[in-house]
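FIELD: query
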Amino acid sequence: MTDATELSRRTVLTLGSTGAIGSALVLAGCSPSSPSESPTGNPPSSPPVAESDPPSPGSAAPDAPAVGEDVAALADVAVGGSIDAKINGEPALIAQPTAGQVVAFSAICTHQQCVVAAAGDEFHCPCHGSAFDATTGDVLNGPALEPLRPIRVAVSGDRIVAAS
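FIELD: result
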């Protein structure tokens, strides 16, 4: 038998309907002869998205709750402020720079791994005095030289959740 890419669609459909070729060949026979070409000879366009497709990981439909570990209530974090939290069992810091926007960082100091504490618009390390910007995690003053590691979070309704 000839290579499946050399068969005409009519041949593939005829053979496929008799059970001589599996569904994989039927699908291969119905596809364009090259990945960069559509049946019309034009470059392919983006594949259509079915309305029943679920949202991609790390995002949520506008009215659907985000998936991820529940971290805190949005109301617990003052706008311009921050709180101490736990994400996946690890110490974390959550800040709300502007209304409805939240950011999170590991609470482990990049200097000598002490646990950093929330302090309004800054995070403070009690061990050696490093201070970090609560909006960016950047070092404001050392001895730490590296910023805090960011953690992905999202707002779902009135809750802050860990994003995947």
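FIELD: remark
The mean pLDDT is 72.
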